[in-house]
Design goal:
This protein has one domain: UDP N-Acetylglucosamine Acyltransferase, domain 1, CATH 2.160.10.10. About 10% of the residues lie in helices and about 35% in strands. It is globular, with a radius of gyration of 16 Å. It has helices at about 155-170, 190; strands at about 5, 10-15, 20, 20-25, 30, 35-40, 45, 50, 55-60, 75-80, 85, 90, 95, 100-105, 110, 115, 120, 125, 130-135, 135-140, 145-150, 175. The chain is mainly beta. The chain contains two helices and 22 strands. The strands form four sheets. It has a nine-stranded mixed beta sheet with strand order 21-20-17-14-11-8-5-2-22, covered by helices on one side. Strands 3-6-9-12-15-18 form a six-stranded parallel beta sheet, with no helix packed on it. Part of the dynactin complex that activates the molecular motor dynein for ultra-processive transport along microtubules. InterPro entries: DCTN6, Trimer_LpxA-like_sf. One of its GO terms (molecular function) is dynein complex binding.
């Protein structure tokens, strides 16, 4: 697997994390130590202002259907303002994760789960059955109850600002190596 890690200005990426494959990290995103991001099924594009905490794992899995070599693999686009809490795991072969989602501690989202925007996957919830979470869905409890959120998820801009100032004092960071903006969010037609 070839390494092609692109870090945009303003991103805070700890050196002590595992990044494998073609990964683009947007400005303002903070990646803590001990994070694992693996782009085995195609590129991963992480938009601006995401927080990925310790021991979180994001894997872009290869699709079950073998693609021809002429067809370039579809990227996994992770929208802006997503929060991946400690030890959560996301495995996806789909092309798009929405914006402003919270993946709480030790949650697991399997390959055949599509995530809209504004969703919350509760602590230790395991989503393994193929499904599509509509925007603003909240999953919680051992029985995986769900409901619609009553209000939008708050932004994490204050926490992002704090982390980007404090983390360089305690961790070695990877330096930005790109000087342009991320590609725009794919249209609904290309995300399917």
């Amino acid at each position: 697997m070839s390494q092609n890690i692109k870090i945009l200005p303003g991103a805070t990426v700890c050196e002590d994390c595992t990044l494998e494959g073609d990964i683009t990290i947007g400005g303002g995103t903070v990646i803590h130590p001990r994070v694992t991001i693996i782009a085995e099924g195609g590129p991963i594009i992480i938009a601006e202002y995401c927080i990925i905490e310790e021991y979180a794992t994001i894997i872009h899995k290869k699709a079950e259907k073998a693609e021809t070599q002429e067809t370039p693999p579809k990227p996994l686009f992770i929208g802006a303002h997503n929060v991946f809490e400690v030890a959560c795991k996301l495995e996806s072969s789909f092309g798009h994760i929405g914006e402003s989602n919270v993946f709480e501690c030790r949650s697991f989202v399997g390959v055949d789960v599509k995530i809209g925007s504004g969703c919350v996957i509760g602590a230790a919830c395991q989503l393994t059955v193929p499904q599509t979470l509509a925007d603003n869905t909240v999953i919680w409890g051992s029985e995986h109850h769900n409901r619609e959120a009553l209000e939008k998820q708050p932004t994490q801009l204050l926490q992002l600002d704090f982390l980007s100032k404090v983390m360089p004092n305690y961790h070695r960071l990877r330096k930005p190596n790109m000087h342009k903006r991320l590609p725009s969010r794919p249209s609904q037609d290309t995300a399917k």
